Amino acid sequence: MTYIYPSFTFVSFLLFSYLFSHFTYILKYEKKIIKRILSSNSLHVVHNFSFVKNDIERNIIKDDKNDENIDNINKQYMSDEEKIEKKEKIEKNEKIEKNENGDHPQLFQHNYNNLNIRHNNNQMLDFLSSVQKKESRRFYSINLKEKNFRWSMILSIGSKKKDLELGILTNSNITGLYCSYNYKDNDELKNLKYDITLSEDLKYVECKSIMCDNVEHSSPCLPLENYFKLINDYKIRKRSCQNKFCDYVNNMNFLNMIDKLNDRNLSICSFNTTINNEQIKGFYFKDSFFLYKKIKTSFLYFACITESDPLHFNNKLSGFIGLANYINDKEKYHNQNKKIYSTILYSFIYKSISKKNIFSLCFKQGGGFITFGGYDQNVLTKKEAPLSKIQLYSIDKNTNKKYVQQLNSVDVYDLLWIHYYAKNKSYYSLFLKNVTATMDQNKMNSVINAEAKVDSYNYFLSFPADITIKLKNFVHDKCPDTDQFNDCSNLIEKGLIKLKNKNIKDFPKIELLFEEGTVIVHPEDYIIHESDGVYRVLINSSGELKLGIPFFLNKYLIFDNENERLENIINNITKSHDIKNINLYLNNIEENIIKIKNEGQSIIDDVFLAFNGSISHLSLYSYLYDHNINVGLECLNFIYEHSYIEEEKVIEGDAKDEEKIVDITKFDSDIMYYIVKKFKETYEENYNLTVKDLENIILEYKEKIYEESIKLYKEKYNDGIKIYNTFLDISHFYYDGKKMKFLKKQKNDSIQNYNEYINAHTDVEFYELKYHLLSKKIKGHPSVLFWSDAINEIHIKDKTIITSVDSIKLTNTGHQHIIGILGLNRDGELVIQGIRNEVKLFINQSCIINNGIYCIGHIILLQGRMKLLNKTFYVTEIMHPPRNYDDEKNEEDIFYDFENENEKKEIGEYEIIVRNNDKKQNWIIMHDIYLDNPSTFEILEKMFSLYVNTYPDNELPIGFILMGDFISLKFDYNKNFNDLYIKGFEKLSVLLISKFKLILQNCYLIFIPGKNDPCACKNSIPKMPILPYYIKKFEQNIQSFFSCKKKIIFATNPCRIRHFNKKMIFFRQDILNDLIWSSSINATDDNKNNLQDILISTIVGQSHIYPIPHDNRILKRYSSFLFLYPLPNFICISDNTCNSFISYASDNTSDSIISNSDLSFTKKKTFTVYNVLQHDAKRYVVPI
Predict the structure, then answer these.
(1) Nearest Cα to 916, choosing from 705, 1116, 1151, 734?
(2) CA–CA distances in Å: residue 889 to residues 668, 780, 1128, 1145
(3) What are the CA-CA distances from residue 776 to residues 740, 796, 847, 884, 1144 (Å)?
């Protein structure tokens, strides 16, 4: 035993050393990701304005020199006094640490020190904490003042640090000041003015300098003395602001357009512009300014106002700060390597650590704040159960390009990103679609569809005059009856109401709809208490669409100039299409881990060892532990795998070195939240979750999210399915030779004349249309070139040159390829016809006849030679026109078209959501369902039971396609046939109602007539639906139990269906038999037995579902409705004269699937399943 104990000690020492070194290694390489993660800031609704003033020095980069070299304006440096102060502070701290630790001060050279430095083994927590403190504030904040509904900030300007209160404007890039030059003592407003003679840092911008050339300026150039005189003559109108609003608000127009001022010329190195419609003039100067009186910087383009119209400011403001993000082209060119811009916004931005061109505004009555370089997390309050939204898809109005917005922070409130409509302008604007006033169940909606300026200088929500009147009338209608306490008679004209006994919150709210979502302006944001019992309604018409103070009030607006978008944060914003993925471990990981380790009853150490110190696993475990969810390592990893989104490399800040490239991992925090919710609802507190439990919870969660995500689409587009009636839903079309595309015919004339025209030109138009359609199809083939296009083709040696019959050279006895219509001349001889000419054909036994059947009226390709002696074309090969899938799939479809591009886009999004949730979307197809045969109902019951009994584990089909015949007898008008047919459908209704209500409630039932089913024009194609007389009892029975009329459809034959973006056609007809009886040329002997290839080649080659001669078997007026160009995704025919098959139209598995079944459902119990989303078809047999 004496030798075993030291051995055990030695092994323990080695194990401890390995774990210690491994832990240190993990922490070292986790540093990058943690640093990146903890540098993000969450966004919350503002509830208070507490700021940490002592953090300002490290959040703002400091200048100390009065250097006039503009290249150094934005560099970081520190004064000598500050350096000495900082050095003394460091030495003092080291001395304190030395006294506390004996003569060995504790050294912190790295954030990932050895474990034995701290006795409580919380080195990982120290590392996280240090990084968090370092990275948490990369921006800075400044308090705002509010008086008379003008928000302002104090700026200390010049070397004397003159405090000036400047209004916040978002509709200008100019920062203008009221100036004075040797002011007079009796000037009562001298304290509002900035004396340009006092600052030692002030410099005038020369009129011919590059700096003057960079900025927007006017001409001609005037001497400085002229401006001094203008300054002395300039009078500021003192405002009377006894109430909430100044006196000038009463004189503002509420329904009329304000007259615009005439431009006046002035000097270069000066400005001549407008703030809204008030003109201001003056000159530029450079001067220093200070933030919090201690952080010094400079701005090159302060604007001294020498002339102006009466500006709408109160008697406390000395000017304004313009925060527009405008940079002209010259400015961009000269500032490629310098951070010098004409807007002061950049001077504020470059004093932040992040240097990100982002600023935020919060306006509240009595104050507010502004941040530069980011947004302030410390002033925000978190929700108990935070939601997150990291990605949002939206459309850029200028480029129509989809834009993916993404954050890597915890967003605990609903966000709405809205893209700027006008970019790089001296104002911010958004595209406003419409405005709605709502109260209870009443609504007043007005379409806008115009650019709206975001204008903090404008007191009002300014709309066009007609909309303003409607809005004010709507608000007026909600006023209480006029009496001695309440009076709304001045609302329309003056915007004033008198209220004593009505709550402002009872008035309507105004919803502003943008492309990306809706912003709600509450009544307390646009109805403002002005004086005793008097309120002002901030809605007017100023001749320009503007979103003024009510758009800002009580909201947190982030102007993200990096991505040219505005974020609106407020509790009741509505939005759509948000994907909720998040870095879960950003959320208070430090506090969570401290609590877990102190309690000592967790497996957090096992988690650390099992997953190699993965911060993501640790934070995931801490989140579950914090919510009292008991999981083992297996369950933890299961949750990790199902909540993992993706990994991404990002660059921190604007650094270029490799050390700043970090990895982050994204999770779906909603899954964890749902697990917590279900655990507390379902299980006891000490229950340990199993993997099986988690599988059920996550499956239920995904189904819930799926239903929520498709709710809007489902309300608008139901199941994304459109079923076309051949006679009602498809339009006639023609080929436009100039545009080289097919266009729908417009019914410009009366319906009667339109019908007569269609009937009179049916044959001619059909063949002309067919020729253009198939010619267009051939031209898409890469190996084919028409002779008319060959002149401009350089490499024609690899092409097959095709000549039309009208262009054929009879004297050319060489090898030729010609295209035309197969026909018969007056002598009954085969010819190939064009529009003007026809050529006789001679086909001998050696001629190669490719797969297919060739009938009179088919467009065909021939290869052979002309013989001058008898002017006959001797054919060596015959084929149907070829097609190219890659070319055809891009063709515009005139049969399955959408109402507009927006519908097409949204249907595509709908399909993506359904596909991403692994939904099958199966269609079940069968034919010859003899309802007069009792065994049919036995088979139907068995098949329906297979789906119903396995639901919800297995999904129900989206629908059943039931194709005729629905009776085994041949059609007859006698009473016996009628009774059998009616009773068959009646019996089917009883079966569905009694046993398969689930099918009726959730699935489509589409009935397509066959040749023996009673319908109008039953012997012609296309067929009309089954006559109502025969299915009346069936429909009455169904509707007496369910209102499912939209899902039970008696369709035409053929029937076209569009499901999402998949296009299908179903046709019940013995096509092959009709083709053989009508054929003029058949395939060679080697291919005659391959009926499948013959049928497919003929249908695809002629791009027609029923390619027989144009005779009385086809309703000629509707024959063009049977074309298949481009080919639908799924062509399902039920032809009892051809063998069963499922085949692709080409070698490409994305190409059209063509399916045929010769097996009767009643006799063979077979049915076909087509999966829309997977584009796959299979055939099954009902097991009886």
Answers:
(1) 705
(2) 36, 11, 9, 12
(3) 9, 19, 27, 11, 22
Opening angle at CA 1096, ends 1091 and 1100, nearest 5 = 155
Same domain, 583 and 537: no
Please give the Cα distance from 192 to 487 (Å, whole number).
39
Output the CA torsion sign for 1134, 1135, 1141, 1147. Answer: negative
Cα separation, 635 vs 646, whole angstroms: 20
In a domain, 784, yes or no: yes
Flag whether 569 is in a domain.
Answer: no
Burial of 244 (0-12, 13-18, 19+ CB in 10 A): middle
Same domain, 632 and 555: no
Q: Read off the CATH number of the domain in which 948 is found.
A: 3.60.21.60
Q: Residue type at 840?
A: K
Asked if 1130 contacts 1151 with a C-beta cutoff of 8 angstroms, the reply is: no
Residue 936 has pLDDT above 90, yes or no: yes
Contacts of 862 (CB under 8 A, 6+ apart): 817, 818, 819, 820, 832, 841, 873, 875, 877, 878
Same domain as 915, residue 880:
no
- Angle (CA) 533 539 545, round 5°: 165
Three-point CA angle 14, 15, 20, nearest 5° = 100
**Is 80 exceeded by the pLDDT of residue 84?**
no
SS3 assignment, position 1072: helix
Distance from first CA to last CA of the chain, Å, rounded? 76
Whether the predicted model's global pTM rises above the 0.85 cut: no
pLDDT, tens only, 604-628:
888 888 888 777 788 778 778 877 8
Dump pLDDT digits (tens) for 285-314. Answer: 889 998 877 778 888 889 888 888 888 787
User: Do the domain assignments include residue 236?
Assistant: no
Residue-wise pLDDT for 650-676, tens only, equals 434 333 344 444 455 566 767 877 888
And the tokens for 805?
A: 């019959």
Question: Mean of the pLDDT values across residues 224-245?
Answer: 64
Based on the fold, state whether residues 665 and 697 are members of the same structural domain: yes
What radius of gyration, in Å, describes the C-alpha atoms of the chain? 40
Alpha-carbon gap, residue 864 to 849, rounded angstroms: 12
Mean pLDDT for the chain?
76
Give 134's pLDDT tier (boundaries 50, 70, 90).
Answer: very low
Domain span at residue 208? 141-218+257-326
At residue 1143, the 3 state secondary structure works out as strand
Percent of the chain with pLDDT over 90: 28
Peptide bond connecting 1183 to the previous residue in cis, omega within 30 degrees of 0: no
Specify the 3-state DSSP secondary structure of 1087.
Answer: helix
Q: CA-CA-CA-CA torsion for 1077, 1083, 1085, 1090, nearest 10 degrees?
A: -80
Position 367: which residue type? G
Phi, psi of 718 (to 5 degrees): 55, -120
Residue 161, phi-psi category: left (phi > 0), alpha (psi -120 to 50), beta (remainder): left
